[in-house]
Amino acid sequence: MAVLCMALMCAGSVRAQESSAQRREPGTVSFDESWTYAGNSAIHSGTAELYLASEEAGGGRKNVTVCVNAGHGTSGGGEAKTLSHPDGTPKVTGGTNAAGEVYSIAVSSGTTFLDGATEASVNLQVALELKKLLLEDGYDVLMIREGDDVQLDNIARTVIANNCADLHIAIHFDSTDSNKGCYYCSVPDNGTYRAMEPVASHWQEHNRLGSCLVQGLQQEGTAVFGDGTLQMDLTQTSYSTIPSVDIELGDRASDHSSDACARYARGLKAGVDLYCSAAK
Ligand SMILES: [Zn+2]
């Protein structure tokens, strides 16, 4: 069953639509071809899952839906390409795909930790832990991936989040091996990029959410890389119409034990609390 859903916006300012017109039911969320930018996705046969907090949760239901997106985990995702920007302009920074690229890999396979663990599996471990913490405290949670594979590319993940969540957090680790700490991919300080929709209308809230997540991670004991930001022109950012961040929790050399994953999740949860309390 496809769920068309929209929650109240914790920042209170972005959503033009009326939440009363939307369904908010727990369950499987299928990709809807009519959604804005849906036509740019190459891989979208998979589904996401929406979980609602119970009335008994923590301080009661918050009516805020957090999209938890465990990065990578789409087999075949490296062979498909999608438009880097919705308007077909080239990327302004490097990353998995080079600056100047009009097309980007639909979903890359991610990196591998020095001990052989895959980034995709560790991202998932943190995502599942974060889901639990959010639900316990009254947040609703949209899970993009809950197993090793979901057939949703980065555009599909973003479009589903745009239509069914209030915040979008993509969980990643970087491919360096210096154990450098966490940071978020901030919106490039580039006039052309920041003038392109939907980036123009949303880049400030992306950066504010990213900054809250890094602050939460730091509060819970995760080291921070530099000032906690690295400017990146990402597919996710280029297509997001809700506050949306790619958070890099560390790199290939970082601790990814169960305790560490629980700590990352606590940090991300603290960051969501910071963002939502500041937005009230
Ligand atoms: Zn990654």
Keywords:
single chain, 280 residues, alpha/beta, Aminopeptidase, 8-stranded mixed sheet, two-stranded antiparallel ribbon, 6 helices, 10 strands, globular, disordered N terminus, binds zinc ion
Helix content: 25-40%
Task: Give the end-to-end Cα distance, rounded to a whole number of Å.
Answer: 33 Å
Helix and strand succession?
EEEEEHEHEEHHEHEH
| Total beta-strand segments | 10
Which homologous superfamily in CATH is the superfamily? Zn-dependent exopeptidases
Named CATH architecture: 3-Layer(aba) Sandwich
Count up the domains.
1
Q: Characterize the overall form.
A: globular
Structural class by sheet pairing and helices:
alpha/beta
Bound molecules: zinc ion
Instruction: Look at the structure and give the mean pLDDT.
Output: 91
Low-confidence stretches: 1-23
Oligomer: single chain
For the CA atoms, what is the radius of gyration? 17 Å
Percent of residues in beta strands: 15-25%
Overall description:
The protein has 280 residues and is an alpha/beta fold. It has one domain: Aminopeptidase, CATH 3.40.630.40. It contains six helices and ten strands; from the N terminus they run E-E-E-E-E-H-E-H-E-E-H-H-E-H-E-H. The strands form two sheets. It has an eight-stranded mixed beta sheet with strand order 1-2-6-3-7-10-8-9, with helices on both faces. A two-stranded antiparallel sheet has the order 4-5. Helix 1 crosses helix 6 and helix 4 packs across helix 6. Bound molecules: zinc ion (ZN). Zinc ion (ZN) binds next to loops. Zinc ion binds next to loops.
